[in-house]
Sequence to fold (244 residues):
Amino acid sequence: MNPKLQALAKGIKSNPYEASGDIYHPLPFPEFQDLTTSSDARSAYRKWALVKNCLPLRSSFSNPRVLDIGANAGFYAFNFAKLGAIVDAYEPHKHYATIGHQIVEATGLSVRWYNKKLERTDLLDKQYDIALMLSVFQWISEGDSHIDRATDLLRLVASSSRVLIFELGCNHGKSAIHTEERPIVWIWRLLQQNTSPKRVAYLGQITPWGRARRYIFACAEDLIKLNIWQRLITYVLQHQWVWK
Fold:
């Protein structure tokens, strides 16, 4: 066990930050296993499995460069770093960005933290193997208020990465995007129209809290692995069989 991580976990436990948990997301180290989370920890691990299993990291990437937008305290950033990735993590929330910094100091993992929102200028002359936009699009768009701005950033992130992993739900949450369509269809169309020439593939769905269903997609060219179920749902969406 890492004494520095143990001390950090003790500090978080003694000063819980979330109303319904010590922290929002779990942290992928045994020192933090006793912390409670305000989101469903099982959903976070299921999402990580969906992401990891679709990426043939060892065969297609060598020390992949990963961009994590809205990284929170680093559940996905540190999972990637433990596999050898070099990660740029953007988190505007000071509390969680600070925890991320402290974990880097304690572990030496290759995660560079930016306590700020990702902006267009941050992507100038940069290319990533993998980009993560996991339930952040609605915060960038401020719900229904600035969807054009969020879509513009989506296009730029897609063009700056080989594989984009995207997650979004609709109609639930503080900053939700509202649609009369089935949310999975609205999200599919958003990605189809704004991540070309990448192919959009369905990975799965999670329920992080309550009835808030979120859908996870991969946008890539020929780099991802899909199981039979993922291929089936992707085929159904491609042929517009769930449009109504």
